[in-house]
Each structure stands twice: as structure tokens, then as C-alpha cells.
Design a protein that fits this description.
Blueprint: E1 5-8, H1 10-18, H2 25-28, H3 32-36, E2 42-47, H4 50-58, H5 62-72, E3 77-82, H6 95-108, E4 112-115, H7 123-134, E5 138-144, H8 153-165, E6 170-175, H9 182-195, E7 200-204, H10 211-220, E8 225-228, H11 242-249, H12 260-277, H13 286-289, H14 291-294, H15 298-310, H16 317-330, H17 340-354, H18 363-370, H19 382-389, H20 407-414, H21 421-429, H22 431-450
Parallel strand pairs: 1-2, 1-8, 2-3, 3-4, 4-5, 5-6, 6-7, 7-8
Helix pairs in contact: 6-7, 6-21, 8-9, 9-10, 16-17, 20-21, 21-22
Amino acid sequence: MERLKITDTTLRDGHQSLWATRMRLEDMLPILERIDEIGYHSLEVWGGATFDVCLRFLNEDPWERLRVIRQKVKKTKLQMLLRGQSLVGYSHYPDDVVERFVIKAAENGIDIFRIFDALNDIRNLEKAMQVAKETGKHVQASVVYTISPVHTLEHYVETALKLEDRAADSICIKDMAGLLSPYRAFELISALKARLQIPVQLHTHYTGGMAVATYLKAAEAGVDVVDTASVPLAFGSSQPPVETLVRVMQESPRQTGLDLGKLFEIADYFEEVRIKRGHERGITRISHMRVFEHQVPGGMISNQVAQLQEQQALHRLPEVLEEIARVREELGYPPLVTPTSQIVGTQAAVNVLTGKRYGMVPTEVRKYVQGYYGKVPGEINPDIKKKILGKKQAIECRPADLIEPRLQQCREEIGSLAQTEEDLLSYALFPMVAKKFLEEKANKPAQNKDN
């Protein structure tokens, strides 16, 4: 058997899961060349929440971050997480925006596009997959993993086969809540390897503590690549630590070939960054382990805690977690990943805090029930559906078919503030946030001259 390959997530999902995506480019630069020497299969460095956070909180240009990383990382492939038709945002964008975004991401340095849809609705993946394929880059189509009566082994295999038919170069099983148990992983990966002609990668989170054992059984079943993070950004709701996995596999036929000494040098660097920035280590808490019961990912729990604190209602968290499970069932068992995690979580919190279930329905929940996020995996409770939609009809088509092209309008709106097509795309994705960022960027040279 071939050695087990590893994707490093430290520079994307690691700090998104533990540090609220707050790692800065200046924190990454000194260590990039050493990471490049390790021999990773790929580095996940972009996508997910990093784009939004760069613009909104760090005053960094996400495109510039990608270009700089690409200049420093010469040997290892760079990977991004793309939310299908939602790209790096929270709702669907028109096809013209998707097309230009994927093309510019490829031009700026992305080698592997990991593309997923929260509902496993393949229609929401097709445009991004097609464009990424046309750029000549590697298309990794994802199957989101969760547990429900409708998410069977057959569902996962059939979804993966459909993605392979659409020219995916590899398949990723995306287990965002750390729900995949070791023996279930063996069964799932075995089934996929028996039916697919393309590589299979597994992404999970440490969350309840099963991740290393899950990877071990997946490796025995023939998984090609797994995701890990450097130990200061591992554990908790992040990925398992690369150092542990490398040691676990050393006496096996699937040993990774990675150098533990060099990995610990990198870990020492990130530990210094962690201390300097005041971030906590990843910890598996009892509330995280209860993911086995309620299936709520660690990051989603953090969001619920923050929202309930604002309402002085943190003591009601156990009720909200119970309600999330109920709402998820009633809404057709969506996997709890962006944006469906926010949709289900918000409705559950509203139900608990108002004391009247579905008495108030947020706009995003209404849009979800109407079909604007795609086809729901299961059946929405008919009474709830009628209560939410009233006389409105649900849509049956691909949601993006109803969205008008927008790039030309964005070009007119932002005008000369967008110096590049990348600036224009930033505005198309996050209009208010990007406009503020671009205005500040435009004023910087004038401020320097005055000084």
C-alpha cells in the first residue's frame, strides 16, 4: 500500500476552528518555507471564512495573502475550501461571479479546489467544478458527512459516484462535526474505494476525540489523504495533530514518511504565535463530546454561546442544543455546516427564547424551506412547511438559475475604487465590507504623503 498522504490545515481550518480565523499573514510568513519542505500532499491556506475575516477584521487583502503564500510555497500544492455556489460567502452568487472568482483564485495560486455544498445538492457544485476544471486545476468534490435516517452508506456512495461522473479528480468526505466513528469510517472508505476510480480524502475534526482512531481505520481501508493541523492549532474543534498521526502510522504499511523533528520545530513556532496572540489551546470539553448526541459542531456551539450571552440567556444553552436536533429533523435533516448550521441554530434559539416554536421565522429559514439553498436531503415536516411558507410555493430548479448576472452592475457601483478584477470580486461577494476596505486602501498613500 502507498504511504498515507497528509494535507495540512493549520493556515485555514486550524485557526478558523480555534482562533476565530484571526491568524495574520505576518504570523504565517516566517514559517512558510519550512512548512513547504515537510512533504505534505497539500496546504489548505484559503477559503472558508478566511476571505471574509481578512477584509472585515484584519484589514488584509485576501488576494494578496494568497499571492504572497504562493511566492513562498514553491513545492507544495495550495488548496482552498469553496462553498459551491456560495464561494466564500453565506448565500448563493450568480454564475458570472462564480466563474470569475474561480478563475482568479486559480490565477493567484490555488492548485486544488475542495468544493462542497451544505445539502450535498450536486446542482450547487456543478458550476464551480466546471470552471475549476477548465482552469486545469485539481477539482476535489466533497460529500458532507452527517448522521440521520436519510444519510445512509448508499447515499454517500451514490453522491460520490455522481461527482466522479462530473469529472471530479478526487472525492473528500467532509466530516465537519467529528461524527465519523472509526468503524463507520472503515466501512465508508472501503465502499468508496471499491466503487470509485479516483482518490478519496478524509477531513474530520477532533471535537469528541475520535479523529485519530477514525484516521487509523480509514488508512486501513485505503484512504489516500487525511487532514491534520500542527499541534498548537489542533485538538478541540480543529483537526487532529499531525505529530500524533505520524507517530501512530510509523510501524504500519501506510507510514507517512514525514519527519517528526521538523514537524515539532514548526509546532514550536506556532506555539510562540499562539502565546503572543493570546489564543487558547484546543481542548475537548464535555460540551464538545456531546456532539455524539446533538451533532452540533464545536464552532456552531461557540456561535450559540456568543448569541445567548448577548441575550443574557447562556443558561438556556442545553435547551437550545436539544431544540437544534428537533429543528434539524423538522427541516429535513440538513448537515450542520455553513450556512445550514446558522439557519438551524438561529431558528432553534428563536424558538427557545420566544417560547413559541416557529412563531417568528428568520428570512434565511424561510428561504431554506422555499428551496433557495437547494434540495433538502429529507422531507420537511409538512405542517412546519405550511406554517412557514403560507401560500408561497417552493422552487424546484437550481437556485442560481434565478439569480441575475451581477458583475457588470458591481463594476458600475464600485467604479474606480476597484483597481483590479480581484477588488471587483471582493466587492461582489461582500459589498459593504469590501467597499470600506477599498476606501481605506485608497486613502493610505495620501496619508503617507501628508506624514
